[in-house]
Specification:
Length: 317
């Protein structure tokens, strides 16, 4: 009896310790990460494209902006999207692959992979695959070409903490045929082998700048997941753990030729060159966070993929 009592006591103690550890965790929602408020942009496209006004959405305080005006995140919003106003050869075109959708009593962010048609007789005839993407940072408008898309995105925001996980709710629908299409607007459209998946990525970096304005980074923390199966509904409080130290098994260092960009102290957009893994205990200086309805190269995806997310937060222990 004595032995049995001790065993029960130990098990009870372990359960209480586990509960206490769980209760010690807390989640902080990223600003505007409940996606309940949006900026609506009414952008008149060029007359040669029909002159219609297209609605384009941004994540930020509820407001309406009319006119073909370059946009920068408003109301202290840290979020940017793949929605963009382009001006190619003087032709204004708006693209919208991210929009608000209803979720419960509020809203969520809906990302879709679409084929954007840009057609104007005698001037432009382009089809471009656009994956719906939201990220922390800025999209630089107006976009004037499809060349080097990462150079038009300022990826990452200042951040100095060390969370243990990323958490969010999501709902995913991927067409059953699951074939990918590549189309950058130049050359013929191509079918690309392989499965397309929605992508979630969080990278914590320690960045610094040299005397010539080059930006370098060491990777502090890594979280990455590819979601390749449609869900039957919403998956709530999904977690992506953040791995500290060398996490090449989760997401290798970013190759120089595929570097994301940031603005240096001279005001110039330059690649952020990841050169090593940070030493244990290093505090980051920046966070990259991205959600996308596609996981391939730019201008590649499965048309019709829909990825909805809500309640994006960081978990701390």
């Amino acid at each position: 009896m004595k032995h049995r009592f001790s065993k029960i006591t130990i098990l009870l103690g372990a359960a209480l310790m586990s509960a206490a550890a769980a209760n010690a965790e807390h989640t902080t929602l990223i600003k505007y990460g409940n996606f309940d408020s949006w900026v609506t942009r009414n952008i008149p496209e060029s007359k040669i494209l029909g002159g219609k006004t297209k609605q384009v959405y941004a994540i930020g305080p509820t407001s309406i902006i009319s006119g073909a005006k370059p946009y920068s995140p408003a109301g202290g919003s840290p979020w940017a999207t793949s929605n963009v106003m382009a001006k190619v050869m003087g032709v204004v075109k708006a693209s919208n692959a991210v929009s608000p959708a209803a979720h419960g009593s509020g809203k969520c962010a809906r990302m879709v992979t679409t084929m954007d048609h840009i057609k104007a007789a005698g001037m432009v005839n382009m089809d471009v695959v656009v994956a719906g993407t939201i990220f922390l940072g800025k999209m630089l408008e107006p976009v004037t070409s499809t060349k080097n898309p990462y150079s038009k995105m300022e990826m990452g925001i200042p951040f100095t903490q060390r969370p243990v996980a990323l958490t969010f709710d999501y709902n995913l629908s991927i067409p059953k045929e699951n074939q990918r299409t590549y189309s950058s607007g130049f050359g013929k459209k191509k079918t690309v082998p392989g499965l397309d998946r929605a992508e979630v990525m969080i990278l914590l970096q320690y960045r610094w700048e040299d005397a010539n304005g080059n930006i370098f980074a060491k990777r502090v923390g890594t979280g990455h997941e590819l979601l390749g199966r449609s869900t039957s509904g919403w998956v709530n409080t999904h977690r992506v753990p953040i791995n500290y130290g060398n996490a090449s098994h989760v997401k290798p260092l970013i190759p120089k030729q595929k570097s994301y960009y940031a603005r240096n102290s001279k005001g110039k957009m330059v690649p952020v060159q990841e050169v090593d893994w940070a030493a244990p205990g290093t505090a980051p200086t920046h966070m990259i966070l991205m959600f996308s309805s596609g996981s391939g190269e730019p201008y590649t995806g499965t048309i019709g993929t829909e990825f909805m997310i809500d309640n994006v937060g960081l978990v701390y222990s």
